[in-house]
């Protein structure tokens, strides 16, 4: 079988590499000439564990190719996947579908056979119907099917998510389209992956509802963390007690500085706007998004308080800049709210992130970027853990104390146990936990 994927960004590249690992011949097409040239040299433009090796192996096997030639890419393809970006539209929060519709129009003009056009991009309810209308207007001679097949890839674990997903959602309305999609995903049928076949609108909504629910879950546990601090409880124990309830589950119950990334903020905004347009406002999602924005904005205040009420003239070391570990993605990262606020309060910033500093330099050029965590801490008045990269979980506390001008740790990810840090002679501030010596196992 042969398929084409339009868009060599995060979703398109991961999906193309994984489909080729299934044994499918995959042609990935992108209009960005330099991006395609880099990929043909096995240079991966994003950081995703294992992706480089997967691309190299399947390119060498002849199953995966990259091109700027859309006509060549879709020629003979049983299905054409659209995997272009759908960022928030400037000014109103709706999903910007301009790239999707441009891709649809181009695909329709060059199709040479009856095929299935699949939206893998995250798109609002109703997009599939509009895609069908546009294809039909351009190619009334063509027999085609439109399918919605949303992705559920987590940055940092995308390959595992693709190869062993919780579910596959397929919005398709003909037996032919369902048969082709079953064939494409056959390896996942063999490991009994749940497959949900539904209509276009339902498939489109499943994606937005899932991400918005998870966003609300994060916002909820963060507010519970604030309550824990006021009443002397431990949010990690509260979350553990909640998560053991099978109706709730443990995932996304980790208190921190707020969610970011390319999905939760964007998708929650788009769902809110879709609901408003339909006359059914989603107050829970609206509140979760507002609470998250406020949380990120308030994190700098916590750091200032930990430093005695002022950071004017102080140097702060920031560890972790990306919105989560195992990615180089800076989009909507809490660091983009925290570091500018500290700078505005008079602090000098030094920072280290294992993968995100190239993009961080572009966004925050006034930060001093360091080669490792210890260099960032040299001479600093406090260290702040913003992103929980594994290498920050076992820092040498004695070395840290020797490097820091003042022994202050603000741990926004609850990486350490308060009693351990207190015993090492640090002032330690974390999220939603009792003071050292209380609630310790």
CATH class of the largest domain: Alpha Beta
Walk across the major sheet and give the strand order.
3-2-1-4-5-6
Overall pLDDT: 94
- Count every helix, treating DSSP H or I runs of 4 or more residues as helices: 18
In CATH, what is the homologous superfamily of the largest domain? NAD(P)-binding Rossmann-like Domain
- CATH topology title of the largest domain: Rossmann fold
Which value, in Å, is the CA radius of gyration?
24 Å
Structural class: alpha/beta
Question: How are the SSEs placed, and which strands pair?
Answer:
Blueprint: E1 2-6, H1 10-21, E2 25-29, H2 33-40, H3 51-60, E3 64-67, H4 70-74, E4 79-82, H5 98-110, E5 115-119, H6 127-138, E6 144-148, H7 158-163, E7 168-171, H8 175-184, H9 186-190, E8 195-198, H10 200-231, H11 235-243, H12 264-277, H13 283-306, E9 315-319, H14 335-344, E10 348-352, H15 357-363, E11 368-369, H16 373-377, E12 382-385, H17 397-403, E13 408-411, H18 418-423, E14 427-429
Parallel strand pairs: 1-2, 1-4, 2-3, 4-5, 5-6, 7-8, 9-10, 9-12, 10-11, 12-13, 13-14
Helix pairs in contact: 1-3, 5-6, 10-12, 10-13, 12-13, 13-14
């Amino acid at each position: 079988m042969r398929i084409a994927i339009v868009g060599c960004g995060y979703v398109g590249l991961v999906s193309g590499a994984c489909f080729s690992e299934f044994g499918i011949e995959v042609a990935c097409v992108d209009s960005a000439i330099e991006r395609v040239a880099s990929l043909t040299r096995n240079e991966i433009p994003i950081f995703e564990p294992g992706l480089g090796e997967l691309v190299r192996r399947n390119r060498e096997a002849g199953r995966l190719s990259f091109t700027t030639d859309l006509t060549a890419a879709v020629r003979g393809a049983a299905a054409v996947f659209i995997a272009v970006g759908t960022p928030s539209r400037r000014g109103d929060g709706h999903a910007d579908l301009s790239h999707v519709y441009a891709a649809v129009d181009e695909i329709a003009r060059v199709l040479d056979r009856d095929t299935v056009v699949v939206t893998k991009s995250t798109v609002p309810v109703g997009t599939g119907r509009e895609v069908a209308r546009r294809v039909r207007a351009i190619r009334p001679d063509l027999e085609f099917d439109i399918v919605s097949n949303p992705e559920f890839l987590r940055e940092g674990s995308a390959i595992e998510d693709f190869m062993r997903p919780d579910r596959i959602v397929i919005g398709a309305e003909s037996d032919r389209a369902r048969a082709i999609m079953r064939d494409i995903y056959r390896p996942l049928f063999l490991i009994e992956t749940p497959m949900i076949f539904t209509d276009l609108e339902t498939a489109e909504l499943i994606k937005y509802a899932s991400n918005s629910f998870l966003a609300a879950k994060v916002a909820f546990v963060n507010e519970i963390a604030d309550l824990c601090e006021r009443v002397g409880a431990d949010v990690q124990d509260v979350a553990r007690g909640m998560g053991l309830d099978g109706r709730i589950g443990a995932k996304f119950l980790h208190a921190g500085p707020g969610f970011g990334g390319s999905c939760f903020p964007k998708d929650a905004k788009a769902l809110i706007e879709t609901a408003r347009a339909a006359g059914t406002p989603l107050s829970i999602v609206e509140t979760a998004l507002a609470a998250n924005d406020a949380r990120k904005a308030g994190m700098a205040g916590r750091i200032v308080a930990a430093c005695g009420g002022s950071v004017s003239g102080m140097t702060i070391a920031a560890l972790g800049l990306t919105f989560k570990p195992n990615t180089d993605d800076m989009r909507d990262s809490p660091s983009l709210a925290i570091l500018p606020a500290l700078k505005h309060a008079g602090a000098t910033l030094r920072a280290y992130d294992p993968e995100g500093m190239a993009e961080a330099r572009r966004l925050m050029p006034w930060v001093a970027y360091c080669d490792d965590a210890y260099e960032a801490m040299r001479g600093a008045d406090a260290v702040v853990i913003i992103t929980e990269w594994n290498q920050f979980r076992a820092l040498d506390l004695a070395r840290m104390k020797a490097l820091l001008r003042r022994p202050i740790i603000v741990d926004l990810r609850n990486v350490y146990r308060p009693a351990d840090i207190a015993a090492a002679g640090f002032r330690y501030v974390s999220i939603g936990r009792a003071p050292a010596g209380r609630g310790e196992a």
